[in-house]
Amino acid sequence: MRQKRLEATVHGRVQGVSFRYYTRLEAQRLHLMGWAANHQDGTVRVVAEGPEAALQEFMTYLHQGPAMAHVARVDVTWSEATGEFPQFSVRWI
Q1: Structural domain span for residue 66
Q2: Nearest to 11 by CA among 69, 58, 68
């Protein structure tokens, strides 16, 4: 099964609402590898790798986020997976 890479920037009220925590849980549920991190501009940056079907489901989650979040927009780019991640983690940038 071919692996893909999704890189997303999530805009809206996505910091201070446990967005990264729940994103990690969703990625783990879908067996995805990668990371999520807050950026200084108020967005959350997400990089995930795995099967395309799982990434599509994950992208649906990113457009909703956890209950306290309000997602205004998600910018997404797709590429081939690199296999560089051993798990899905929360990063602090």
Answers
A1: 3-81
A2: 69
Q: Is residue 91 part of a domain?
A: no
Distance of CA 42 to the CA centre of its chain: 15
Looking up residue 58, the CATH number of its domain turns out to be 3.30.70.100
Q: Could you tell me if residue 93 is inside a domain?
A: no
- Residue 61 belongs to a domain: yes
Task: Look at residue 68 and tell me whether its pLDDT is greater than 90.
Answer: yes
Asked if 2 is an active-site residue, the reply is: no
Q: Active site includes 20?
A: yes
- pLDDT above 90 coverage of the chain, percent: 96
What number of other Cβ atoms are within 10 A of residue 72's Cβ?
Answer: 11
Query: Which structure tokens are listed for 56?
Result: 């599509």
Q: Is the pLDDT of residue 93 over 80?
A: no
* Number of domains the chain contains: 1
| Residue among 20, 29, 45, 73 flagged as catalytic | 20
Question: pLDDT, tens digit, for every residue of 26-37?
Answer: 999 999 999 999
